[in-house]
Amino acid sequence: MNPVSAQLAQAGIEHYSDFTVKELSYFKIGGKAALFIIPNSAKEAAAAIKICAAHGMPYMAVGCMSNMVIKDGRINRAFISVKNGFSHIEKKGALGITAGAGVTIEELMNFAAKNGLSGMEFMAGIPGSVGGAVFMNAGAFGESFDKVIKAVYIADKRGKIRKIENKKGVFSYRKSVFMKKQCVITGAELKLVKSTPAKVKNRVKHIIELRKQKHPQEPSAGSFFKNKFPEYTAGRVIEECGLKGKKIGGAAVSEKHANFIVNKGNATFNDVVKLAALVKKTVFKKKGIHLKEEVRYIR
User: What is the second-level CATH architecture of the domain 89-214?
Assistant: First the structure.
């Protein structure tokens, strides 16, 4: 037993060595994480981070793994899962919601609709969890999650549990300061506006139907490239370059939406990376536009 596993065991924190993550990821791609840690509280998450940091073990938080392309083979890092131990969700005052990092976006939408709280319907249908949505500052239809975030709760490498208020510099387009902090997001506090359950449910239903019409159903990591340029969307640019349906190995540019790279059944990490590189090279050659990935490569 390695020293990290030994200390985790001593602390009573659930964990597994050489844990296969492929079937847990939305893309259905990935090898074995050196450690897969499942803390049941912010206190356990903080302890796990402190143990990993003390032994120089790279670590990262994972929820639904919906915005990641994970390499095949062994991944020399600890995955700290927030999917099971951080599923609490409750109202905070008249217009607030406090949600654990493991709460799925679908669960969050349902809770908001039930309580007649509006302001984040644009998030409806986005795969993944609250923690991942905060980390990536997820969004759609020109809006981002930080619009409704009041504060974020984290566990840091010193073993401390902290509250980070949403202020200038914490979030930007598909980015957050948490990408550079050695921490695990454990939850978030949201501030919404009053509506009625019927209005919120109808809006959520409409958004989900739009997404189903436009987006592919095959395994993917969601929108692959950022839509940061004002006059074009990545999907439109890629389509105009004639790349819809382009394949490398088991990975393909979706015929339904060109900003999705999908797994046709046997895609590898390298298939996806090579196809993404080809798309970027072709778009730059034909359009003079530099595409940048929205997804995260986990190597």
Answer: 2-Layer Sandwich (3.30)
Catalytic residue among 66, 129, 174, 176: 174
223 is catalytic: yes
Q: Which entry of 5, 81, 223, 254 is annotated as an active-site residue?
A: 223
Indicate if the pLDDT at residue 157 is higher than 90: no
37, 86 in Cβ contact below 8 A? no
Domain ranges in the chain are 3-81, 89-214, 234-298
Residue 42 in contact with residue 153, Cβ under 8 Å? yes
Mean pLDDT of 102-117: 97
Residue 183: predicted pLDDT: 93
Over residues 15-25, the pLDDT tens digits come to: 999 999 999 99
Catalytic annotation on 81? no
The CATH code that applies to domain 234-298 is 3.90.78.10
Q: What does 31-89 look like in DSSP terms, one character per residue?
A: -EEEEEEE-SSHHHHHHHHHHHHHTT--EEEESS--SEEEPSSEEEEEEEE-TTT---E
- Reported pTM: 0.92
Q: What are phi and psi of 49, to 5 degrees?
A: -60, -45
Question: Band of the pLDDT at 10, cuts 50, 70, 90?
Answer: very high
Q: Which CATH number fits domain 3-81: 3.30.43.10, 1.10.3570.10, 3.55.50.30, 3.20.20.70?
A: 3.30.43.10
Q: Which of 44, 121, 189, 294 is catalytic?
A: 294
pLDDT at 142: 87
Report the pLDDT value the prediction gives residue 36, as an integer from 0 to 100. Answer: 98
74 is catalytic: no
